[in-house]
Design brief:
Blueprint lengths: L12 H13 L3 H8 L3 H8 L7 H11 L3 H25 L8
Helix pairs in contact: 2-3, 4-5
Length: 101
C-alpha cells in the first residue's frame, strides 16, 4: 500500500471531479450540475477547491460516480484535517494527552 507524503496536502475532492471524472465522462460543469441537482456556481466552487464537499453533496457525487458518499467524505476530511494541522499544529503539540485511570 502506498503512503502519502505528509508534507504535501491531500488532493481536494473537487480536483478529482475536475481533472478525472468530468473529462472521462466528456461532461461540462453545466451538465454535471444539472444531473446533480445543484447550481453550476455551487459545483464550480467545489471544482475550484474553494468550497468543501458537504455530506449532502457527497451523497449526490457518490451516486453520480457510483462509488457512494463515504469516499468523498473521507477525501474532504483528509483535506480539511491536513490544512487545520498546518494552521494550529504547534498549538496542538502543546496539549498534554490525558489518560483515564
Amino acid at each position: 500500500m502506498a503512503t502519502r507524503d505528509k508534507k504535501r496536502p491531500p488532493v481536494h475532492p473537487g480536483e478529482i471531479l475536475r481533472e478525472d471524472i468530468l473529462p472521462t465522462l466528456d461532461m461540462s460543469v453545466t451538465e454535471a450540475a444539472s444531473i446533480l441537482g445543484v447550481s453550476r456556481q455551487s459545483l464550480h466552487r467545489i471544482l475550484a477547491g474553494t468550497a468543501s464537499i458537504s455530506p449532502e453533496m457527497a451523497l449526490r457525487v457518490g451516486k453520480f460516480c457510483g462509488n457512494g458518499p463515504e469516499s468523498w467524505i473521507r477525501m474532504q476530511a483528509a483535506y480539511d484535517l491536513w490544512h487545520a494541522e498546518q494552521k494550529i499544529g504547534d498549538e496542538i503539540a502543546g496539549i498534554k494527552t490525558q489518560r483515564a485511570a
